[in-house]
Amino acid sequence: MAAVRGFAIGVVGMVKLREVLMHVVPDKAAQAPAYVPPLSVIMAGLGTTAVDLGMADTVTVSAQYLTFLLRRLLSDGVAVDQAWYQDRYLDIRGAVMAGQVASPEAHYRGTGWLEGRLPHEVAFDAAWYYGHYDDLHAVFDADDVDGLRYHFYTRGYFEGRAGVATALDAAEAWRVGR
Fold first, then answer.
1. 17: which residues sit within 8 A by CB, 6+ positions away?
2. Over the stretch 41-65, which tens digit does the pLDDT of each residue have?
3. Which of 26, 54, 92, 101 is the most exposed, fewest CB within 10 Å of its CB?
């Protein structure tokens, strides 16, 4: 596969990617059912087949196709809380007011996801977070809710940590790629 830059994805990572792609469905009942791409189309984009994938340790994918897959996962299938997004990212509020960006949602779907911006607030419970991650005890007191929240939103979330118990399994699955 000719690509400027390629990425290697392990078999386990591809299986997880396939599972996620198959479950990205808009939650608006009034919309027509979401298009679910056949596995053969995804495999063609990756330059392999399902049979080859079962025998390979890695698959090389072009940067263009990986960006397409990530955009589908992290942009198109995600709800954007426009009020929260503007409050969280003041530069986007200014860009919207100046007419440089059509809306907070348009920014997120265009480039915000690629910049690592969150589309909506992520659930966070300071007591659970502190209790679950022992390494935080060396830096924070249990009652330092603001410090723990700041840590989660600026570091912890991006390290793959969960902010609440109900998100732990999903966060761990994504962090370890299983």
1. 9, 69, 73
2. 777 888 887 777 777 778 788 888 8
3. 54
